[in-house]
């Protein structure tokens, strides 16, 4: 399990910790950086998301190489397919985030619209990541390693963080709508 064990560790680090923290940076209720300027929050968000993407790419590379070494098929389970889609989507979302750093590259788009689309598509990517984690928790390896109440508690983590992040994005959207009127 030596090489393989890096895969769940890196993916959990990417999606359960780094990406969650990167999204919560903008929460007025939960952010450790709430007193910092928006510019600082954006830079920390960017750095955490980049670290999350790097961990996810490394985790994907490790599982792909491990399957190759063991002569196993690639991307044949729901977890594998969702995981691949999630990592690719995350890469695209990070590229989209660069446009928010340089909004002049997107002529004919307002910064407010770019932020809304980035937050909404980021939520989709985050939910994909949580779904992939949960599918991984249904794998034979995980259900053999983590049993009884621990399994349910592990499943609860991405479920609860998904609800928190969805609430944060919907609150930001509602705030934006209210401030337009």
UniProtKB/TrEMBL annotation:
<keyword id="KW-0813">Transport</keyword>
<feature type="transmembrane region" description="Helical">
    <location>
        <begin position="46"/>
        <end position="65"/>
    </location>
</feature>
<protein>
    <recommendedName>
        <fullName>ascorbate ferrireductase (transmembrane)</fullName>
        <ecNumber>7.2.1.3</ecNumber>
    </recommendedName>
</protein>
<feature type="domain" description="Cytochrome b561">
    <location>
        <begin position="1"/>
        <end position="176"/>
    </location>
</feature>
<dbReference type="GO" id="GO:0140571">
    <property type="term" value="F:transmembrane ascorbate ferrireductase activity"/>
</dbReference>
<feature type="transmembrane region" description="Helical">
    <location>
        <begin position="77"/>
        <end position="102"/>
    </location>
</feature>
<keyword id="KW-1133">Transmembrane helix</keyword>
<feature type="transmembrane region" description="Helical">
    <location>
        <begin position="6"/>
        <end position="26"/>
    </location>
</feature>
<feature type="transmembrane region" description="Helical">
    <location>
        <begin position="149"/>
        <end position="169"/>
    </location>
</feature>
<dbReference type="Pfam" id="PF03188">
    <property type="entry name" value="Cytochrom_B561"/>
</dbReference>
<keyword id="KW-0479">Metal-binding</keyword>
<keyword id="KW-0408">Iron</keyword>
<dbReference type="GO" id="GO:0005783">
    <property type="term" value="C:endoplasmic reticulum"/>
</dbReference>
<dbReference type="GO" id="GO:0140575">
    <property type="term" value="F:transmembrane monodehydroascorbate reductase activity"/>
</dbReference>
<keyword id="KW-0812">Transmembrane</keyword>
<keyword id="KW-0349">Heme</keyword>
<keyword id="KW-0472">Membrane</keyword>
<dbReference type="GO" id="GO:0016020">
    <property type="term" value="C:membrane"/>
</dbReference>
<dbReference type="InterPro" id="IPR006593">
    <property type="entry name" value="Cyt_b561/ferric_Rdtase_TM"/>
</dbReference>
<dbReference type="InterPro" id="IPR045150">
    <property type="entry name" value="CYB561D1/2"/>
</dbReference>
<dbReference type="GO" id="GO:0046872">
    <property type="term" value="F:metal ion binding"/>
</dbReference>
<keyword id="KW-0249">Electron transport</keyword>
<feature type="transmembrane region" description="Helical">
    <location>
        <begin position="123"/>
        <end position="143"/>
    </location>
</feature>
């Amino acid at each position: 399990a030596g090489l393989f064990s890096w895969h769940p560790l890196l993916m959990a680090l990417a999606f359960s910790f780094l990406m969650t923290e990167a999204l919560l940076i903008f929460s007025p209720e939960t952010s450790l950086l709430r007193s910092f300027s928006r510019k600082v929050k954006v830079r920390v968000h960017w750095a955490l998301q980049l670290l999350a993407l790097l961990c996810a790419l490394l985790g994907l590379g490790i599982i792909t190489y491990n399957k190759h070494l063991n002569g196993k098929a690639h991307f044949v389970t729901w977890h594998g397919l969702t995981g691949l889609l999630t990592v690719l989507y995350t890469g695209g979302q990070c590229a989209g985030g660069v446009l928010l750093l340089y909004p002049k590259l997107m002529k004919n788009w307002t910064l407010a619209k770019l932020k809304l689309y980035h937050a909404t598509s980021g939520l989709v990517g985050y939910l994909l990541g949580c779904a992939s984690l949960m599918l991984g928790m249904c794998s034979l390896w995980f259900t053999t390693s983590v049993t009884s109440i621990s399994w349910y508690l592990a499943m609860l983590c991405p479920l609860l963080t998904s609800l928190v992040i969805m609430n944060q994005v919907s609150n930001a959207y509602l705030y934006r709508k209210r401030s337009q009127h």
